[in-house]
Amino acid sequence: MGKKFLILFFILAVGIFSGAAFAAPVKINTINFDNSDNMIFIGSLSGPNEIMNIKTFKLSNPNRFGIDIENAILTRPNSSWSFKNSKIRQVKFSQFSTEPAVVRMVVYYNNDLDTSKIRVYKVGTNIIFSYKKDFLKQDYMENIYREQKSTSEDYYEYTTYSEDPQNNIPSPDYVRPEQITQVNQAFNSGNINTTAARVEPLLKLKSRFYVNRIDVKRGNALIRGIGQITIENPIIVANPTRLVFDLPNTYVAPEIRNKDYYLGENESIRVGQFEPTKARVVITSEDVAKFRPIYSFDGQSIFFAHDDRILGMKLFDQYATISEYTAKKINDITDLFELSFTAPPIHSIKRLNNKVEINLYNPTGFNHAAFKSALNSQRLSELKTDALPYVGLKIIIPLKKLATIEYSESFDNKTIQLLMTTPKEAEIKATPSPIIKKKGEIKTIVIDAGHGGSDVGAMRENILEKDITLDISQRLAEILRKKGYDIQMTRKTDEYVSLKDRVIFTEKKNADLFVSVHVNSSVSTEASGIETHYYTPVSYEFAQTVHKQLASKIKSKDRGLFKSKFYVINNDIAPSILVETGFISNPQERSCLITDDRKQKTAEAIADGIIKYIKSN
């Protein structure tokens, strides 16, 4: 499992309720799970006179850990969740009693969970239950822009959980909140009365990003949220022209997902939940080259702005003076460039083929000559500075085409840092180039039925993704064999095959093409449609051809073509794609996905796309 990073899903709600002569009960509204298998977040509705006490307990046979939240009312139904690929087996959440008012959470866990690492944190009237000791990141600098799509802090396999409907019944005091809002402030630690777990102070909680609002301003879009923003290097997709940004470790509020916000004539922006822990921002415009992300002074929002449309706009309330600048060599291939300010800067970064641009929108007192002379660095010897229109500073740093960058910001938002890595020419030449056969020579095709065995994939109403993908894959294999192709399957039965073994199998078979079949899912029941994913440049045309056939032959929403770093399509040398055949989480589409007609038509459409790709010039 690649469960390596924390993402907090902050979904807090505010209700309307009256005061009392004594401390009013805290209203517990949400419970959210970290898909990197680190923590459980309990959100409450708090007011100035609300006080709650926390008591914990630990029991065995079965192993379970409990939290009693005293002076609390549950404003959602009693609930139960079952977990997969986790040391946590089940979580139950209920109104334990009403007089006194006690809300209880019980966590059932496996024997291999190290209970010495359990921590309980109180953040105001919110509670964090952590079962990994190092879940809070202590680094001073946080990465906010990067070109490498995958890092040790990301994960593509993740803990999944499903609700247990039979246990989800309303409590006697269930009141659905009338308003949804966000906590937009630093969180301060509090005291917890505890018996079974260590309680540690929490000075400031820097989460990953939770997106909850989009505002359009003069043809630009402000995406607001809570947490720490990271943006990946964008890609441009044609027909229509779109600029695509991925935000790893980000959760999007369901009410704004996949909704078009219009920037102008034939221009729009939308934000979707691309993966359970990754958001995707798509800007549709014929002028995408002029858009860039601008980071706010507190790092809690991102402004996707068109260069021409921000002229004259007020982007800041205070100026920031550059107090220190540093340039130094980290090693033979990596250089660091760092700027510190007296106040948080409003800034943006944009990578072009042979340079990187950093725009500073609120600097003051800048001396271009002194700045350049102070940077005694060979890498930055050709650095240029220029004034932005009206106010601001542009810093241009030349880069070699194969160089990569990482852009970070400090917790206090007053320091920005750029790491530039340029591989040596000898290393570049030593990297083997994939041997791709001409299309007419393609014979061996690997069909990968997603999931299998203990890995059931997405699940709704006892319908399992692994069963649908195997059925479609077997039909696809039969069609292609009849056409004379050598078809190899990563699994032919209901068995578990690791992602690594699927890649090794493909390499051993000297595959000419690789197709992975999956079924999509979402926390929303409304999402529907088909997607096709690719990653390597040699896979783009293959993905485009297959997706076109799927979109034309399957009666479902065309969600488009995506560049995605899924393990099986990133690590295969052959042109490789991953097809999401529909959403199991959508009741209407789920009822179609399990039919022989839909599965056969899906297999035929994929086969037609494969054959068309092979026969194309």
Span from first to last CA? 40 Å
Low-pLDDT stretches are: 1-22, 133-139, 168-207, 426-434
**Structural class by secondary-structure content:** mainly beta
How do the strands of the widest beta sheet line up side by side? 20-15-16-25-24-28-29-32-31
Radius of gyration: 26 Å
Shape: globular
Q: Report the strand count.
A: 42
Subunit organisation of the chains: single chain
Fraction in helix: 10-25%
pLDDT averaged over residues: 78
Give a quick account of the main beta sheet: strands, pairing sense, barrel closure: 9 strands, mixed
Strand content: 35-45%
Query: How many helices does DSSP assign?
Result: 8
Task: Please tell me about this protein's structure.
This protein is 14% helix and 39% strand. By secondary structure, the chain is mostly beta strands. The strands form eight sheets. The protein has a nine-stranded mixed β-sheet with strand order 20-15-16-25-24-28-29-32-31, with no helix packed on it. A seven-stranded mixed β-sheet has the order 17-12-33-34-27-26-30, with no helix packed on it. A six-stranded antiparallel β-sheet has the order 4-5-9-8-7-13, with no helix packed on it. Helix 3 (465-482) packs across helix 8 (596-615) and helix 5 (540-553) packs across helix 8 (596-615). The chain is globular, with a radius of gyration of 26 Å. It starts with 12 loop residues before the first strand and ends with a helix.
